[in-house]
Design a protein that fits this description.
There is one protein chain. By secondary structure, this protein is an alpha+beta fold. It is built from nine helices and 16 strands.
Length: 402
């Protein structure tokens, strides 16, 4: 017996009904198997009620496949993309349990002064621990000459000899050799080494043509200062300025000079440790046009930072910083020296008590598979709803349009 209705074929209905009636007399095991089979969440349509293929179904299936492919690649690229997780903690890097002052901080600098020659630039450092260094070079700081247009006069960096204070070394050697070394040193010591009485004579010896003439920079050269400093992990500062350090016996005195040198500069790089992806160095690329005899101050707050790359247990310990700045004029006194804060570019840094820990992370492969399954299930479900809507519209389009 066959019955055709709405594209569906129905055959052998009476036999099926007979089979159902026979089921009333089935054994308990067969009833149990049928009860378990009734729990099937994805029942199959019997071939007797199967419908034919349709163009709308083919189009929906094709669109479903394209959308699944597009979403799959989106999920894959999201899985391969890493993210940075951050966490704030109290910094403990400033204390070493065994050795004092073991924790040092490295400062990398690369600064170009467009109107100061290399032999007129001095770099000094100081910190709250009482450590001071005048005219720092000591092999870590290099200089390169530039012309008035900023072009290189020499492609190679020059390094000055370290400050060894030869008169101190000589005095110590003589004291160790003879008991009369102290008197011999007094005889050799010039009179101008007396701080108050011979200071003018000392200036004449160092600057026979006058202080200002020594800092005229007639060739209008510039200088690139590049290198690094190693300082105590305490608040401190370093300054780059026109000036010179003088030896007064066993003491070093910084001579702050009032000149017409322009302090215009470009900071190519200033960092407090090793770099990592996304590090914040706000002064990199900064340029300032500073007139002569001015004080440019940068106030830096150094933030201890660690960075852990993906699939690595090695942490990069470094520092970031925030910055504010200030500008003022330096005033000279009667001797041509600076009476208040010396002219120059100051970098004054302080340390934050909070450490930022960055860790590079990525979603797990299990999460990726879960996302793929969710995409496929969602697209297939939505495609079924759309297909039913299309079939309903095609079957009742006359009524809907009328």
């Amino acid at each position: 017996m066959q019955d055709r209705r709405d594209g569906l074929t129905r055959r052998n209905v009476s036999d099926r009904i007979g089979d159902d009636r026979d089921g009333d007399r089935a054994t308990p095991s067969r009833r149990l198997s049928r009860a378990v089979a009734a729990l099937d969440a994805n029942p199959k349509l019997k071939e007797d009620y199967a419908g034919g293929d349709s163009v709308s179904g083919a189009i929906t299936t094709l669109a479903c496949g394209v959308l699944c492919l597009f979403l799959f690649f989106g999920e894959y690229f999201a899985y391969r993309t890493t993210s940075i997780a951050s966490e704030l903690r109290v910094d403990k890097h400033g204390i070493n349990k065994h050795v004092a002052n073991a924790e040092r901080m490295k400062i990398d600098i690369d600064i170009t002064f467009h109107s100061m020659a290399c032999d007129l630039i001095a770099l000094d450092t100081s910190d709250k621990a009482g450590e001071q260094h005048y005219d720092v070079h000591d092999g870590h700081i290099k200089k390169r000459r530039l012309d008035r247009n900023g072009k290189l006069l020499s492609t190679e960096f020059s390094t000055e000899a370290p400050n060894r204070r030869q008169e101190i070394a000589t005095a110590v050697k003589m004291l160790n050799e003879t008991e009369t070394a102290s008197s011999q040193l007094e005889q050799k010591r010039p009179a101008q080494l007396q701080l108050f009485g011979g200071f003018n004579d000392l200036l004449k010896e160092y600057f026979p043509n006058g202080i200002e003439a020594a800092f005229e920079n007639k060739d209008q050269e510039g200088c690139e200062v590049k290198g690094y400093l190693e300082v105590n992990r305490v608040p401190g500062s370093f300054v780059i300025s026109p000036g010179r350090s003088l030896s007064l016996g066993l003491q070093m005195v910084k001579l702050n000079v009032h000149t017409n040198l322009n302090l215009t500069h470009t900071i190519h790089r200033l960092s407090f440790g090793e770099g990592f992806p996304g590090i914040v160095s706000p002064l990199d690329g900064t340029q300032r046009s500073i007139p002569a005899n001015s004080v440019q101050q940068y106030f830096l707050t150094v933030v201890p930072t660690t960075y852990t790359p993906l699939n690595s247990n090695v942490k990069i310990s470094t520092n970031q910083y925030s910055v504010t700045e200030s500008y003022s004029k330096a005033r000279p006194n009667a001797l041509g020296l600076v009476s208040n804060k010396q002219a120059g570019v100051f970098f004054e840094y302080d340390l934050s008590a909070i450490r930022v820990d960055f860790k590079e992370t990525r979603s797990s492969f299990g999460a990726f598979l879960t996302g793929i399954c969710a995409i496929i299930g969602g697209v297939v479900t939505i495609a079924g709803v759309v297909q039913r809507g299309i079939e309903y519209f095609l079957a009742h389009q006359r009524k809907l349009i009328a």
